[in-house]
Amino acid sequence: MNSLLASKGKQLSSHIPKHFAIVLVISFILLIVCVFASLVLGSRMVGFNGVMDGLFHQSIDSYEANVVRKRISRTIFSLFCGGALGVSGALMQAVTRNPIADPSILGVNTGASLFVVCGMAFLNISSANQYIWLALAGAAITATFVFGIGSMGRSGATPIKLVLAGAATSAALSSLVVAIMIPRSHVMDQFRFWQVGSVGSATWDGIATFSPFLIIGILIAILSASALNALALGDDVATGLGVRTGVLRLIAALGAVFLCGAATALAGPIGFVGLLSTHVMRLLLGPDLRFVIPMSAISGAIILTVSDISGRLIGSPGELEVGVVTAFIGAPLLIILAMRSKVSSL
């Protein structure tokens, strides 16, 4: 039996999905369209000439050119955050062998939120550089706690136990966030805009702060993809194939925390992007994480950018925060997944 599963593991790591090239080309086309649409669409529409002026003619100081220049950082930031959340979701699903694992569902976003609000309330922090370290610490501690609680008992870390542990932890931490904010009106004003989840306040300094964490997290994800394929066959088979499952889970979870924590620190707790992007790519390409992980980065970037554009158009002349839009998209998906029998495990 083990030899059969081992051969399946080798086939999985060597097989290229049938439609990979087509999916890759279409994804890149959609990504380019999303970038252009993000520069053009909003409360003020910008023409083609305005886009060209804003991108290539820095000496031109027209209103449209300035609007485009402002949207460039926002667009890049939404691409980076969407990619980070997509890869983070893929890693969490692989590590927990849970198809509905996601930073928001497992409570990791809430843990990051708690540490950020504590920093606002007790340390008077207000910069992205300070947010990011607190969010990473909160995400790491919460992920460790949820996995520890979900692993208790004879059956170990089953998918349903991890979701229940994440939901309970998220509810408890959310109540702590509210308890800290209520007596501190200045913290509530500062935190409520961050908590909704938005890429509208993107800055080049924030992108520069975020980029190292994005690179490290994606490198960890890509380098651990083959071993995570073996882990999907079960711990015993993975160990037989030479995979150190404990070390692998720790490293992959660290990559997920880097990506999720950094994105949450700068954009707020945006949910469901990792869940949606990974499931779309798994549906199109199959379970091989060597392809699912990088493609989840692209699909996550597309989903978050489209959500940001939709929020601008729906809320015009203001805007609807991207976290609200992704929740409207992701919540029905979660219900559908929970109703399917295949949700029990990966």
Short description:
InterPro entries: ABC_BtuC-like (IPR037294), ABC_transptr_permease_BtuC (IPR000522). With 346 residues, the chain is mainly alpha-helical.
What does this structure look like?
There is one protein chain. This protein has one domain: Orthogonal Bundle (ABC transporter involved in vitamin B12 uptake, BtuC), CATH 1.10.3470.10. The protein is about 75% helix and about 0% strand. The protein has 14 helices and no strands.
End-to-end separation in angstroms reads 19 Å
Relative strand content: under 5%
Please give the largest β-sheet: none
Average pLDDT works out at 80
CATH architecture: Orthogonal Bundle
Note the quaternary state here.
Answer: single chain
The SS-based structural class is mainly alpha
Q: How many helices?
A: 14
Radius of gyration equals: 20 Å
Number of domains: 1
Q: Going by CATH, what is the homologous superfamily?
A: ABC transporter involved in vitamin B12 uptake, BtuC
**What characteristic shape results from the CA principal axes?**
globular
Estimated helix fraction: over 70%
Say how many strands there are: 0
